[in-house]
Amino acid sequence: MTQPAPARRLDEFKPDARFAWCVTGSGHMIEESLDLALRLPRCDLFLSRAGEEVLPLYGWPIKKLREHFKVFRDNSASSVPVGMLYHGDYHTVVIAPATSNTVAKCAFGISDTLPTNLFAQAGKQCVPGIVFACDTAPSVITQTPREWVELRPRAIEFENVERLARIEHTTVARTLDDLKAELERRLSDLNLAWNTLSS
């Protein structure tokens, strides 16, 4: 069996390399996830078409996002922005929050959106990926734009999360605390620190 390649060394990234933060169509913990993205040094946003539809429902239209981030939209069939991974522009890919659809696609190697394409190419470049999966507990209470609802993920959702967790260079965050802890670990690896103030 072929052994996976080791993660890229820090000196293989550009000195000003960035976090690539991907947003999919989930509203689960979207505001809390963006709060963490705002606190990261040098972080760009990559939106799926579904993510672009959902974000304004939670108070984040594109115009407001661009006040805080460089924003890449899913408007090319070949996901042109992915090429920046090859040149060491991004040291970490984060998908947060990740829908069950995105988790399934990543778990089975399907890359037909900007976030899933970034995830796949990051893996092939040995760039660490952190995925905040939404469906990881028997009962999930989540906020829609209008109300709180309870979701009960199916066995297939749990199976896909476990399959995703076995992919090289991938860490699955199952809670917001997990996501924060993984980001702190990555910041430490990179000798970086959280921003003290959101910009």
Average pLDDT taken over every residue: 90
Q: What is the structural class? A: alpha/beta
Distance between the termini: 47 Å
Number of strands: 8
| Major β-sheet profile | 6 strands, parallel
User: How many individual helices?
Assistant: 8
How many whole angstroms does the radius of gyration measure? Answer: 16 Å
Could you characterize what this model shows?
With 199 residues, this protein is of the alpha/beta class. Helices cover 34% and strands 21% of the residues. It contains eight helices and eight strands. The strands form two sheets. A six-stranded parallel β-sheet has the order 3-2-1-4-5-8, with helices on both faces. Strands 6-7 form a two-stranded antiparallel ribbon. Strand 6 and strand 7 form a beta hairpin. The mean pLDDT is 90.
Would you summarize the structure shown here?
This protein has 8 helices and 8 strands, in the order βαβααβαβααβββαβα.
